[in-house]
Amino acid sequence: MADFNIRSDSVNVEQIMEQIRTRIREKRGVDYTEQQISELAAVKMEKFLDARGVRSDLLDEFRRLRPASDAPTRPRYEFHDETLFETHRGPIRFMRRLLRPVLKLFFNPNPLIQVLHIQSQLNDLEVQAEASRRAREQLTFEVMHNLVLEATRMGIEVKNLKMRVESLSGRLEFNERRARLLESAVVYKGMEPTTEPVVQQPAATGRREYESRPVEPRPPADYRPRPEAVADARAPFAPQTAPGGQPAGPDGPGQRSRRRRRRRGRRGGASAASVMGSASMPNAGPTPAQADGQASGDQPTGQTVEPPSSTEAREPADAAGDPDPNAQ
Amino acid sequence: MKLAIVVQRYGPTINGGAELHARYIAEHLARHADVEVLTTCATDYVTWRNELPTGVERVNGVPVRRFKVKHQRDPRVFGKLSDRVFGERHSLADELDWLDAEGPTSPALIDHLMKQGDSYDYCFFFSYRYYHSFYGARAVPARAILVPTAERDAAIGLHLFAPVFRGVRALMYNSHEERAMIHAVSGNQQVPGVVVGVGSDVPQNPQPGRFRQKYDIRGPFAIYVGRIDQNKGCPELFDFFQRYAKEPTGRLSLVLVGHSLLPVPEHPRIRHLGFLDDADKFDGLAAADLLIMPSYFESLSMVALEAWALGKPVLANAKCEVLKGQCVRSNAGLYYERYAEFAETLHAIEHNRWLSGSLGRNGRQYFQNNYDWRVIERKYLDMLAQLKAAPARHTMEPLPGRSERRHDDLAAAEEVLNRLPKAGDQDRRRA
To answer: In Å, how far are B228, B238, B255, B269 from B242, measured between CA atoms?
Structure first.
């Protein structure tokens, strides 16, 4: 939870509550009540959900399609053998029974009775099926209602989470940049006492015009480079600075990878003394880059002259403190 | 001057809000006038069973005259009538039946007022919603002063009370919100009224260390004092606090003081101490970091005032307009409506010592300015003097005839309540 800051001398509860609500909005997005979620689910679902996936008027449509009232109560008509001849009047019942044989002389009522009896059974089945269907519909409606509500809630949640992820990514990116900056600052700050400014010399390669190399790592005490190599070796690491003192120049992908290799070499491969080019370690072994150079059949270290690198030129820290083995 | 205090229950061990309020007022007014308390023999506010003898006794030096309750409350009948008058169209007869079912029905008390009413200069009726206030104020309208202790619940929407609000000589309100609500429901702006509330006898030197030692409580804690009940918002408090306890930064425990009508959750940071006497209660308040008031309905939270008197901040439920209004007016408490606000406000009070200290100081000042006994007594005495100086200008509207009472033409009380403006609406209109 974030700390709470009040800048005024006296407490104003309404102001504090406003601050608290603002912070809640910032932290959690809009905090909806259950009722608001229901309203959103019923009305504005397309704002939160993909309209192609779920119809926002689903519930209304479902309600419209459902009959407004419960199932109509159909008359239950049971039909038996005697149904045709039944009556509550005794004399008439007696007469019908008496005359039934006479009636059967004119037509056969049995098929009629049978058909009506079957129809009565069919009606019963239909009523049962209707009741079952309505119960199922009720459950379906409930499930759908809950689904729509939950989908809306999840939509809101996803939106909030997206905002949080965006915020966290931004912060992570910033922290990474900051960590890189701090890392380089700490490493090169430690190297500064071992370096000293070098007298500005004109470039000797003739490829580009380099102004100066402000600082350069000190070589081992017993190291005596050839005079022509010194001039050549200095030139590639002399930074090409902008008029304001800032390093300038493009940074190619090959140069980047070289710099990465050098850093890797500093961290893991070479000892600190060799990396720093300390005078107290005259017999420091070759750096990985040197070894690389030898293995690849290049000229021996210290005599290798590489074309000037604009990467180093752009980065004063590198130029000042980076003991590029290729330079030695 | 002879004054009558008419209240539904009365006694040194009765700690209901309105009853305690009445006792405090009676005992303090007794220093300035001849006070007699008229009450029932009941002690239980659910059944209104007659448990104390009739006649006169003295409680803390104040004479108390008790009258029998005619019948106990039948919860089934009362519930049925409540459903009808609160939720459906109904008649005045239904409302009168509801009032009778609610109790404490004591015709003897009303009879005493009818016969002996002239012997009192003024009669203070506590709690508008009970039988004794309704019929008592009608028995002695020219002497009746109502202390409504009204909350924003459905009973305020019943139609039978509006004539009483308009017909009494004066009203002593507990809060500005209560006054606004009664004005809106009855249109009684012409009746003299003053927002008073009630004071509290807060000890000068509470012993927080003693409380911690006695109940073995360590670390910071928030306290809740009152009945642990659904209506007091306790389930919501439990839910919110248990969620807050999961937050990594929160260290507060919750201490509950009062009788429980609900199961208290088993949680390592929730302690229920049961009912405590006043000394322990005040020690507990002094030891706490803050008081939480989760109640939805309050006409005046005495315990909040007591916490402020002891310099403690209050975290109140914003759904209760009165509590929220008091927090804003005093600048001594924060309020919440949902969990996010609960967590943030509690966190702010817990971790920002400057904030909690300032809130507490404001609370102490607010209590001294508005709820010190000298202030309360002065307001009562001023009102009595004002009434004595000006004769009664209005009368109580009579009840309609028997046939007219039977017309089912009254809107449901909840409907009336929903139509009443809320404090937030007024703020919005002002904005």
So the answer is: 16, 6, 13, 8
